[in-house]
Specification:
The protein is of the alpha+beta class and 192 residues long. Helix content is 17%, strand content 56%.
Length: 192
């Protein structure tokens, strides 16, 4: 009995520490079909957009209740030909400009988490398009709910950053602007 009284606090401390570790354990997630990536741009005749919901991805994330405490890995692959504008000839021009046959995937990989505050993540990520990789800065909102994490955000890029000539049509009379805006909403589901 004296032994239990004397060393019982060690057992309580060990159980408390284990419970604390479990609440911030790393968990594996996979990108669900509840997603949308949108690319918006301009041309000499009208603004345009292309949308995809066919990306695949996975992540290893640490949570404490409904807050992300760290992201150990995060990667997304988007098939180039899944981007659709609703206009076949425009899609074909975009696929050609993005060298879709040679580089069929647009890839994103998280390289560094700079800060996580509230429901906002500031991070760096490497995007590879048409064989050219560049690191970008991101501010991403997130919401944790019942085994899912919804990420949303956006960022600007240019064709020329990725060594891509902006697409042209009608013998060069229609020209696409260099600047693009990427926006996304993507739900990652916990893998049981």
């Amino acid at each position: 009995m004296r032994y239990i009284k004397k060393y019982g606090w060690v057992l309580v401390l060990a159980i408390s520490l284990m419970a604390g570790r479990q609440s911030i354990a790393q968990q594996s997630y996979v990108l669900s079909s509840d997603q949308q990536l949108k690319v918006e741009g301009t041309s000499t005749i009208h603004d345009w957009d292309m949308i995809s919901d066919k990306a695949t991805g996975n992540a290893k994330i640490e949570l404490n209740a409904d807050n992300i405490t760290d992201i150990n890995s995060f990667a997304v692959n988007l098939p180039v030909i899944s981007l659709k504008s609703g206009k076949g000839s425009m899609d074909d021009n975009a696929y050609e400009a993005l060298l879709a046959k040679q580089y069929p995937q647009i890839q994103f990989e998280l390289t560094k988490v700079e800060n996580i505050t509230g429901q906002m993540i500031k991070a760096e990520g490497k995007i590879t398009i048409a064989g050219t990789a560049r690191v970008i800065l991101l501010q991403v909102n997130y919401k944790v709910s019942e085994g899912e994490i919804l990420f949303s955000g956006g960022f600007p890029i240019t064709f020329t950053q990725y060594k891509i000539d902006p697409p042209k049509a009608m013998f060069g009379t229609i020209k696409t602007g260099d600047e693009l805006q990427i926006s996304f909403e993507a739900t990652f589901k916990l893998i049981n």
